[in-house]
């Protein structure tokens, strides 16, 4: 491990706090915010779920993001090596390789279906640009979406395009262009969301949507809803698979981990809430079902683009920006796998990108078939909690609600119990009361909360 010492400098640091924030935001903001948050909010009854989700972000997600970034910066290497290095005097050292393994497995599984949904966005660029959406009824818009889902070969084509986009960037190992892209495209996405929110205000159902999102009705909150909210906090902030740990290893020492983590979490949460405010007025104004599931944004936003002035232009731009947001997240899902293959298996970058990318691509076919030919195939359907879940639903459930929280739990235990308190304190450089709050959270609150939600749901 001596050879590894001081390689922080060799690997080069982010040029500034902004560069780190851009990269981390690029990973965090994606389909999780615009596709997943609205539909799980709709499925879980709105306000109470949103409140639990916000609590999970603040009390579990943010502290774990800080833990990941600090482990990464302290170790100064790839996640597996950082953990090994910091845990040097720990007899359980090999156990921490598990964090890397969980991350690699989660990356494979998530990217496989993430790319299929990214493919939907690719397909909708053409749908919006061709003017097909103009003046369409909710039924016609729904039919366009069902038509896409029922066609495995078209889905495969767009999934292939999305996967190829991700693989090209990861194979080249580019990072600099990506940051610039994020700094232009993220604000663009934000502005387009604001435009749709503006349109949503004219539908007459904005107030109803706002109370749906922000007025908690606890009778609608279920234990499985709490598990989904917790899992989504990990998914949306890209936690539990060591992505933020990898990025943290490039963060200069003089930059506040707490402040940067707060910035990333606030941007991510802001985009999700804005997406909710854009979509639910359209849902209510057109008599659609809030619990419509994974197709929700593709059944609502096209309606808005079909009705607003210059809708075809805004719709085209919106789906292009959504692809970019999903692309930067997809890259951050594949990158750790490729780095792991390079480092642990000694493969070169091109070969590992091709290999890992092809495995994800092939796995994605299972998700594609779940939408049509296998739509009645529910492999674990005999277990109550998996009733009615297709392969695609199971992949989504298992990664977001089990694997990522498990990875996050290990990170919390590592930062809270394995690292020396001194090292952690120095790295965070917080005021005494703030440090105490964070330390208590990762040592006790986070592990207990994650374990409790797990156990409660399994029983
Ligand atoms: N955070 C991304 C999103 O919200 O779309 C998804 C994601 C990216 C999850 C990277 C996990 C990850 F490591
Ligand atoms: Na996100």
Automatic annotation (TrEMBL):
It is a multi-pass membrane protein. It comes from the Bacteria. GO terms for molecular function: symporter activity. One of its GO terms (cellular component) is membrane. Pfam families: SNF (PF00209). Belongs to the sodium:neurotransmitter symporter (SNF) (TC 2.A.22) family. NCBIfam families: Na_transp. It is found in: Membrane. Its main location: membrane. The chain crosses the membrane at residues 18-35, 47-73, 94-117, 155-174, 181-201, 221-250, 262-284, 313-334, 354-374, 394-417, 437-456. This is Transporter. Keywords: Membrane, Symport, Transmembrane, Transmembrane helix, Transport.
């Amino acid at each position: 491990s001596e050879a590894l010492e001081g390689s922080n400098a060799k690997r080069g640091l982010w040029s500034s706090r902004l560069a780190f924030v851009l990269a981390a935001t690029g990973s965090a903001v994606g389909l999780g915010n615009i596709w997943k948050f609205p539909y799980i909010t709709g499925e879980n009854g709105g306000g109470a779920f949103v409140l639990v989700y916000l609590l999970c972000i603040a009390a579990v997600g943010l502290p774990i993001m800080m833990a990941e970034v600090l482990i990464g910066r302290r170790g100064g290497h790839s996640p597996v090596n950082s953990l090994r290095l910091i845990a040097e005097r720990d007899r359980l050292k090999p156990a921490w390789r598990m964090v890397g393994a969980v991350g690699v497995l989660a990356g494979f599984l998530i990217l496989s279906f993430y790319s299929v949904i990214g493919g939907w966005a690719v397909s909708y660029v053409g749908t919006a640009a061709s003017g097909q959406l103009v003046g369409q009824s909710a039924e016609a818009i729904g039919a366009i979406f069902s038509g896409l889902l029922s066609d495995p070969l078209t889905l495969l084509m767009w999934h292939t395009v999305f996967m190829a986009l991700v693989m090209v960037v990861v194979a080249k190992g580019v990072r600099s262009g990506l940051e610039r892209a994020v700094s232009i495209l993220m604000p663009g996405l934000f502005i387009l969301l604001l435009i749709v929110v503006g349109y949503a205000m004219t539908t007459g159902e904005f107030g109803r949507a706002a109370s749906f999102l922000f007025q908690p009705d606890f009778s609608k909150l279920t234990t499985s809803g709490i598990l989904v909210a917790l899992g989504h906090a990990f998914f949306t902030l890209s936690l539990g698979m060591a992505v933020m740990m990898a990025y943290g290893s490039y963060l200069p020492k003089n930059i506040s981990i707490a402040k940067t983590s707060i910035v990333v979490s606030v941007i991510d949460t802001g985009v999700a809430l804005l997406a909710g405010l854009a979509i639910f007025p359209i849902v209510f104004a057109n008599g659609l079902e809030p619990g419509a599931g994974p197709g929700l944004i593709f059944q609502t936003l096209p309606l808005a683009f079909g009705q607003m002035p210059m809708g075809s232009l805004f719709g085209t731009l919106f789906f292009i920006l959504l692809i970019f947001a999903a692309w930067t997240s997809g890259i951050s899902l594949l990158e750790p796998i490729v780095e792991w293959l390079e480092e642990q298996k000694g493969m070169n970058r091109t070969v590992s990108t091709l290999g890992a990318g092809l495995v994800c691509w092939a796995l994605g076919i299972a998700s594609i078939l779940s939408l049509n030919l296998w739509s009645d195939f529910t492999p674990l359907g005999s277990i109550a909690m998996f009733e009615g879940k297709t392969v695609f639903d199971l992949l989504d459930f298992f990664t977001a609600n089990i694997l990522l929280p498990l990875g996050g739990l290990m990170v919390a235990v590592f930062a809270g119990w394995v690292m020396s308190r001194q090292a952690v304190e120095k790295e965070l450089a917080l005021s005494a009361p703030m440090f105490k709050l964070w330390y208590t959270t990762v040592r006790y609150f986070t592990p207990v909360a994650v374990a409790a939600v797990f156990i409660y749901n399994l029983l």
